[in-house]
Design a protein that fits this description.
eight-stranded mixed beta sheet, 10 strands, 22% helix
């Protein structure tokens, strides 16, 4: 049950992990998104959730993420050629990123997540048949969806119908959930029910002399 005075994200009927819900609810309640649309990327489940500025879910989708488990990028990864990136370096870094639409070198629209490390969210790239990216996206296993060099690949219709419209004309915030640390460590987030309970304790009136609490 929601605490009194708290605001929460609306996931509709989407299947989301406790961590994804925790961060999305905190974003809406705290206003950490600054009145802008935001995205939750759940690496453990290999899923993407896109919300409008008010915390209403606009859509969710499976995603392809970095092959390697890890929450940091190696120094200088953004300037390396793909052929020079070792398998253990292919991580999708965790954190809070200000994202905006732009064009890649081929002129295709992408959502830049972190320019320094060359991480973006874009339509699935299917040029390499051996990687089977389209088939991996359709897999029900999150581990099957760990294949990219770090970028977030999503189905073309989801990009065109959800991501692009939500971010057109505005920037927004992308929250990439950690997989080796806790969300509270990375974002400084709080649990809404705990916060509401603590507020209730602070606001509870003092007992009058002679009264007893219920057992």
């Amino acid at each position: 049950m929601a605490g009194q005075g708290t605001r929460r994200a609306n996931f509709e009927q989407a299947n989301a992990s406790p961590d994804a819900r925790h961060v999305a609810h905190w974003v809406v309640d705290s206003g950490d998104n600054g009145g802008k649309p935001f995205v939750i990327i759940d690496k453990r489940d290999a899923k993407v959730f896109v919300f409008d500025a008010a915390g209403q879910l606009r859509g969710d989708s499976p995603a392809l993420l970095g092959l390697a488990i890890g929450d940091h990028s190696v120094p200088g990864i953004g300037t390396k050629k793909l052929s020079a990136i070792r398998p253990e370096e292919r991580t999708t870094p965790a954190g809070r990123f200000v994202a905006n639409l732009d064009k890649n070198l081929k002129g295709d629209e992408i959502l830049w997540v972190d320019y320094e490390t060359a991480i973006s969210l874009h339509r699935v790239v299917t040029g390499s048949a051996k990687e089977r990216r389209a088939q991996r996206l359709a897999s029900s296993s999150p581990s099957e969806r760990r294949i990219s060099y770090g970028c977030i690949n999503i189905p073309v219709p989801f990009y065109v119908n959800v991501v692009s419209p939500v971010f057109t004309g505005t920037d927004g915030i992308v929250y990439v959930l950690p997989e080796t640390r806790s969300a509270r460590e990375v974002f400084g987030s709080y649990d809404l029910d705990e916060a509401a309970g603590q507020q209730g304790v602070r606001q509870a009136p003092p007992l009058l002399e002679g009264t007893q609490t219920a057992k």
